[in-house]
Amino acid sequence: MDPVRSDHQLRWRRALQFDLAADAAGRGGDRRATALFAGGDRCNDGALRVSEVASDRLVYLSAATPFRLLNPTGNDSWHLLDLKNHVDANPGAKPAPFLGWQPGRDVADSATACAGQLVKSYNFKTDRLDVLGVHIDRQAFLDAEQGSKQACINEWLKRQPFQRADAFDSRVLDVDLDTWSEMLATLESDCSG
User: Fold this and answer.
1) For the chain, how many structural domains are there in total?
2) Which among 122, 133, 115 has a CA at the least distance from the CA of 181?
3) Are 75 and 67 in contact (CB under 8 A)?
4) What residues contact residue 174 under an 8 Å CB cut-off, 6+ apart?
5) How far, CA to CA in Å, does 135 sit from each of 20, 29, 60, 89, 93?
6) What's the DSSP call for residue 25?
7) On the chain, which terminus has fewer CB atoms closer than 10 Å, C or N?
């Protein structure tokens, strides 16, 4: 059974429809639900796809650029913040991206530069959204050329362990958020200069 029936963009939001399975007691099964989630433009947090549905949470993926993969937990639109800071008299409120690298200028971030996906979990009971990890398409990431730091980042990525005993596809790396943060610490020493 395919849990996703449609994906409609609604002013930077996406409506995801999915099937709810019955819980262990047999309650609540065979129902269709629709949830409205923030979603962006194509590779900038767009292309939302349901991965898993449970009684208390929905796990979904959103498309990500190399810049977004380096900043998986930021909920800010970096492009809009840059525009706001050009207009605003107090630009100090902008959160800093990973290593201070800017989208487009330092790291690929165009709406067509898909390099993987963020894995997110929305808890129905607590109304909380968490990033669980990243799903990286190695070749797509390496194909990204935009940005002054991208070549160094690509060389770093080539040295990362994409081969796993349980891996279905050696081109794809699924990493939980804690492991990804540890990996990014090595990127800082390689490319921060």
Assistant:
1) 1
2) 133
3) no
4) 119, 133, 134, 135, 136
5) 25, 30, 11, 38, 30
6) T
7) N
Q: At what angle do helices 150-158 and 177-191 cross, to 10 degrees?
A: 120
CA distance 137 to 116: 5
Whole-model pTM: value is 0.76
State both tokens at 80: 């809009």
Is 1 among the domain residues? no
Written as one letter, the residue type at 77 is: S
Range of 74's domain?
7-191
Task: Render pLDDT for 13-30 as a digit per residue (tens, 0 to 9).
Answer: 455 555 555 555 555 556
Cα–Cα distance measured from residue 73 to residue 132, given in angstroms and rounded to the nearest whole number: 9
Structure tokens at 71: 């900043």
Q: What is the CB-side half-sphere exposure of residue 46 using CA atoms within 13 A?
A: 16
Non-local CB neighbours of 78 within 8 Å, separated by 6+ positions = 67, 71, 97, 102, 103, 109
φ and ψ at residue 17, rounded to 5 degrees: -105, 140
